[in-house]
Amino acid sequence: MNKITNALAEAAEKAFTALFDEHKENFYYCSFIISENSTPYICAWSYEALDRFVNALGITDKTQLEEEREIYKWSYADSPYNAYGYNKYFTDVDKLFKEHWDNNADNEAFEEQFELWINSMEEAMAALDKKGLFGTASSRNKVVINAEVMPPDCTNTERAKRLNPKRAIKQWLEEAAEEDDDNSLSRFYTPCEVTLIKAIDSPKMIVSLKSNFKSKSNMKEFLSGCKNPPFVIRDDVYFGEVENIIKLHPEYKTFIRVKKKLSSRV
Prior knowledge:
Elements: H1 3-22, E1 27-35, E2 41-46, H2 47-55, H3 62-72, H4 86-89, H5 91-100, H6 107-130, H7 137-140, E3 144-150, H8 154-163, H9 166-175, H10 185-188, E4 191-196, H11 203-212, H12 219-227, E5 231-238, H13 239-248, E6 256-260
Parallel strand pairs: 1-3
Antiparallel strand pairs: 1-2, 4-5, 4-6
């Protein structure tokens, strides 16, 4: 194993072991996560944690309660164990990530560094699985393990298939697997320019746009631009980020134009 894989495996083993020791629960999902330009971290769900989470929603209708359970069952971001043990066990991983990750790398170099990290994450999980950390024999079939990129794409499914026995991932494949479509890593990380093409008078929407797209313009410049389009909101944002923002705020679609910048990676 390379030094990144070794560091990931050591940190994850300590974090998962602490999690299992401190919470005597029935864990059904354990994963490594990497999102955008962040250091990898672990995440997990147990049936007990899912019950607590869903019950805290205060829903009394049984049908709706079950629907909510299915929504959150595989949601890494909503797990109370997301990034568990990060501050305590991932110091060396964070150091390596800062040393070996270049946000300004060109397309080819960026893909290479990302592949290095996601492959190392998979190798680390495979090594821990071989040690029996996630169960052995029949008990292993009760846990889905993975190394995932977030937002999810079809490569998560490919890694899940390699890391798990078929019986372990049957339900996950039915409920959470991404289809093999164009929602790829390279598509997510395509840099693009977001331009306002229609004037906005609503102060609330102006503030919302500036906040969600993390515009670098000061408020005076941003206000002026929103009232006098066309106005470039951001020229260095990833296409996948824009998609996620628009999913949460579909009202933006009327006012903005998204242009992919294929020549270089921001």
